[in-house]
Amino acid sequence: MVKGKSLRIGAGIFVTIVILLIGLMSSFDVTALSKAPDDPQQIMFRPDIITFDNMEAFGKLEKTKAIFLHDQHTDALEKKDKDCMVCHKTENGRMSQKFMRLKDISREELTKIYCDNCTKCHNEMIAAGEKAGPVKCDECHMERPFIQSSRVPMGFDKSLHFRHYRAQENKCGRCHHEYDEKGKKLFYAEGKEGTCRYCHKEKPQSDDTAKVISMRFASHLACVDCHQQTLAKHMDAGPLRCAGCHDAQEQLKIEKVKDVPRLKRGQPDNVIIKTGDPKGRIARMDQVPFDHESHEEYNDTCRVCHLASLESCANCHPLAGSNKATKNGTGISLETAFHKHGHPSSCTGCHESKQEDKNCAGCHTFMDKNRQKESATCLRCHMVPLPERTGELSTSNAARIARLMPQLWKETFGPIYKVDVPKTVVISDLVDKYEAAEYPHGKVFDAMVTKLEGSKLAQYFHYEDTTLCLGCHHNTPAAGKPPRCANCHDKPFNENYLFRPGIMASFHQQCIGCHQKMGVEKYIGCTSCHKERKKDS
Amino acid sequence: MSISRRKFLGWVGAAGLSTTIGKSAAAATNKQFAGYPKSFAILHDVTLCVGCRSCEAACNTVNELPQPEKPFTDLSVLETKRRTTTTAFTVVNKYENPKGDQRPVFYKKQCNHCLEPACASACFVRAFTKTLTGAVTYDSSVCVGCRYCMVACPFEIPTYEYDQALTPRIRKCTMCHPRVVEGLLPGCVKACPMEALSFGKREDMIKIARERFRKYPDRYVDHIYGEYEMGGTSWLYISGTPFKELEMREDLGITPAPQLTAGALSSVPIIVGLWPALLAGIYAVSKRKEKIAQSEKEQALASAKERPDESEIEEES
After folding, report:
1. Are A355 and A373 in contact (CB under 8 A)?
2. What's residue A322's pLDDT?
3. What proportions of chain A, in percent to the nearest 5, are helix, strand and coil?
4. Do A509 and B216 touch (CB under 8 A)?
């Protein structure tokens, strides 16, 4: 028992000391305890981050990827009057993009090249009393890097392509090439030029293309090398620094040519898109005349539509969907290729995306995105009869028909929106808290016509005078005198018509929804449409 | 008294075992409740709400609440985030649109009327009732003012009249239960000019929500908030903005609140009833064993004193 007692006394003394100590500490160092933890370091965004991804080829990484700021190094070397050769070796007159080597051999060697060379240079600078980069492992291989990439992808638009075309004195072969399997060299094939990305993919797609260098590698090899050589001749050239191409702000500074002349590569002005495949099989739809020249104007690159090659669509897309991958790795049918919703390369997908334009969204926002279009809509494009119905005539004169088409459309279908519409409509069904709304029906119609006439695409698809009316007067035939709104929209939450809004909501959803989408901010508050009703009236 | 290690572990084991008996009995009473058939629900389509506060005004009138300082037509109120109070059963809050669209998003907040309400489960006087219409109603006549419901509610909705010294009540949205039983629409639903609030059978509201997802896939986040949250609620939400951005809790899970506590609570009677008897029994048995051992020891000692040689022989063997 004596032992137990002394233990208790001991514990008591210990607790007292601890409490006293805490008390003392807190009284001396109140500020230290109440101080907020250091702010997390601000994350910096730079476009010139390079991570050494080629290490991944040798299996799982031992450390986090090192972060290398390329522009910072370029600038530092420039200040010291040194050039790229400090870090890059040259082979056959071309600078290797790899650091201090020409090839990746082994993991050990790579690690040695990076760690030794980086720290060597940094150490030398530190020894000379200069500010230098990291020399310790975890300063490069950061667990939680506070610098993140803001790199944006770069590509040629029509303007930039034209500027290069002009600078290269119209010699396409200086950039465009094909690969000669036998001679194992590059050659220029006139009239076969295509987008770099057709061959130079992000990663090799199959064994056949495994030797084709990646787009990233190819573009830096070609672009940077050429810019460097041109600058060496004291001529104007494109950027050398990463930011010059890959910084969002810098990209905006790239000069734009306003009227880019049409690219010449033997493409047709007008084509008749056949609804068949090269083997002569046909889908039983009429053919589609297509104004190729106009569509070149609307788009910035060829690859918006020609995803994998500058050939006819049917060369890659089979007439019937197939499980087998076709030449360019797709089994996507011709029909899907032309009509897929939401895809920027399909006709329907691209046309639909135009409906999001402020001028169009007012009506189109209410329309079911995946609805089955009326069959009459099909005939808006499928309008050239098949040869089996018209005989030789149409096949032999396909080009002529295609050429005539735009004129034909205009004359046959060019709509004149002269519908006799009421000037004002007084909406008085709902008078309660507010007075009746006077709806300037005629004014709204005229505004819609004006917007419509500004767009060739819109005019083409609003082909009847009354198509325009369907934006509001939906689910009724496009006719001069549609039923009244309240004929269908009555009291809300009718179980038999679950998806049909009540009369009050149908007006508000339609009017406010359209105003919101079209940016007509003026008429969104309650009293801008209907005055408040005086209680005594 | 000293307890041996073995005895102590034995007791603990027995006590533990008795709780498991209780649990299996409780599990039989906890079947999944998917709401009363044909009960009503309200679907709030956040994409349609224009932030006009008509619902707030209607709620105020219908429930005969005091007029607020600023009138309901004053939209500057939306600039601050609000929560429900004893005099405002519903509030509309404004949120920035994270899509970069200039137009802000409005979200109406009120009691969600859970299918299995946490407030009702926490209330020990049964002041809350999940009615057949879907509304969770409150009876102030039995309320003792413990405010457990406020602690229990995962949406932090019930409010308490702290300023009423003698008759404080819990205040929250009633889903206009008195109006609904009369065949009228809830005040807020009737007032909404945009039909951002739809009223009808819960299964129909879910159908409407799904139809809107199908029709306008780009416009919505493909999730009906309240369909399963906390076991499901009678107030459902669809939105184009992630619910997290509207400060709606996404950590609630799909288990109704009562189910989280029912198991543990159901074992209380078993423990209270069984443990004293069990432990007393074990104690008595061990006491008796000790007593017998003691008397045996005494006997042995007595006999050993009489015949000392025998013990020596035993030791040798």
Report:
1. no
2. 67
3. 45, 10, 50
4. no
CA B290, B292, B296, B299 torsion: positive or negative? positive
Provide the 10 A C-beta neighbour count for residue B127: 22
Contact criterion met (CB < 8 Å) for B208 and A499: yes
- pLDDT at residue A409, as a whole number: 64
**Do the chains contact at B215 and A370, CB–CB below 8 Å?**
yes
Cβ pairs A/B, distance under 8 A: 45
In single-letter form, the type of residue at position B224 comes to I
Q: Is the pLDDT of residue B33 over 80?
A: no
Which of B201, B211, B218 has its CB closest to that of A499?
A: B211
Q: Which residue, A92, A55, A99, is CA-closest to A73? A: A99
- Asked whether the beta carbons of residue A495 and residue B201 sit closer than 8 angstroms, the reply is yes
Q: Which residue has the tokens 């080597």?
A: A101
Mean pLDDT of chain A: 83
Mean pLDDT calculated for residue range B298-305: 89
| Structure ipTM | 0.77
Closest CA to A239 of A256, A254, A221, A249: A254
User: Which one-letter amino acid corresponds to residue A198?
Assistant: Y
* Pick from A68-72, A194-198, A519-523, B84-88: least confident: A519-523
CB A204 within 8 A of CB A212: yes
Q: Which residues of chain A make contact with B201, given a CB cutoff of 8 A? A: 495
- Which of A498, A501, A505 is facing B204, going by the closest CB pair? A498
Mind listing the pLDDT tens digit for each residue in B93-112? 999 887 766 689 999 999 99
Q: Quickly tell me which residue has 């060496």 as its tokens.
A: A232
Q: Which of A420, A416, A432, A415 is nearest to A504 (CA)?
A: A432
Cβ(A140)–Cβ(A62) below 8 Å: no
CB proximity A502 to B under 8 Å: yes
* Interface list for A 359-378 with B (CB within 8 A): 368-370
Neighbours of B205 (CB within 10 A): 26
Mutation for testing the A interface, residue in B38, B40, B48 having most A CBs under 10 Å = B48
Residue that wins the pLDDT comparison between A428 and A505 = A505
Nearest CA in chain A to B212: A499
| Cα-Cα-Cα-Cα dihedral sign, residues A59, A64, A66, A69 | positive
What predicted TM-score, i.e. pTM, was given to this entire model? 0.75
d(CA A401, CA A393): 10
* Residue A220 DSSP class: I
Helix (H, G, I), strand (E, B) or coil at A536: coil
Task: Give the pLDDT confidence score for residue A407 in this predicted structure.
Answer: 67
Distance CA A269, CA A307 (A): 20
Is residue B110 a contact partner of residue B89, using CB atoms and an 8 Å limit? yes
Q: Which residue pairs from A390-393 have beta carbons closer than 8 angstroms and sit at least 24 positions apart in sequence? A: none
Closest to A133 (Cα-Cα) out of A90, A87, A97, A88: A87
Q: Give residue-wise pLDDT tens across range A124-168.
A: 999 988 888 888 888 888 888 888 889 999 989 999 999 999 998
Partner B contacted by A432 (CB < 8 A): no
**Are B199 and A493 within 8 A, CB to CB?**
yes
Q: Is the pLDDT of residue A319 over 60?
A: yes
| Chain A residues with CB-CB distance to B103 below 8 A | 516
Report whether B234 contacts B175 (CB < 8 A): yes
pLDDT at B15: 63
Q: Strand order of the sheet with strand B235-238?
A: B197-201, B40-45, B235-238
Q: Report the distance separating Cα B233 and Cα B119, nearest Å.
A: 13
Q: Report how far residue B66's alpha carbon sits from residue A225's, in angstroms, rounded to the nearest whole number.
A: 77
B/e letters for A72-90, b = 16+ CB within 10 Å, e = fewer, are ebbebbeeeeeebeebbee
CB contact under 8 A, A498 and B211: yes
Task: Report whether pLDDT(B48) > 90.
Answer: yes
With a cut of 70, say whether residue A413 has pLDDT above it: no
Task: Name the amino acid, one letter, at B116.
Answer: E
